[in-house]
Write a structure and sequence with these properties.
By secondary structure, this protein is mainly beta. The protein contains no helices and 11 strands. The chain is globular. The N and C termini lie far apart (40 Å). 29% of the residues are buried.
Length: 119
């Protein structure tokens, strides 16, 4: 059974930092690209950061230079380090695992963790 379980969300003041973690199980983690996406109330889901199975990273312009995505294939975990947080970063952050093979596309999502940036 595939599981993606996020943790680390919470309330933080503007300018603060948070570290989100996503624990994966039930699939070959090292073969999947991993990403974090967020969705704020009334807005569409936005891809925030992604890391390929080979470790290449990509970021949304809105978080470039403030957020860092990393993965630990030995622990089947992906993390999102968020610095210099702004109120507009407030959203539910979800972890995603994706892989394309000759047999099709595999796409899994976690339940999400709430991040609130407010004074």
């Amino acid at each position: 059974q595939v599981q993606l379980v996020e943790s680390g969300g919470g309330l933080v003041q503007p300018g603060g930092s948070l570290r989100l973690s996503c624990a994966a199980s039930g699939f070959t983690f090292s073969s999947y690209a991993m990403s974090w996406a967020r969705q704020a109330p009334g807005k569409e889901r936005e891809l925030v950061a992604a890391i390929t199975s080979g470790g290449n990273t990509n970021y949304a312009d809105s978080v470039q230079g403030r957020f860092t995505i990393s993965r630990d294939n030995a622990k089947n975990m992906v993390a999102l380090h968020m610095n210099s947080l702004k109120p507009e970063d407030t959203a539910v952050y979800s972890c995603n695992a994706q892989r394309y093979t000759s047999g099709g596309r595999y796409d899994y999502w976690g339940q999400g963790t709430q991040v609130t940036v407010s004074s």
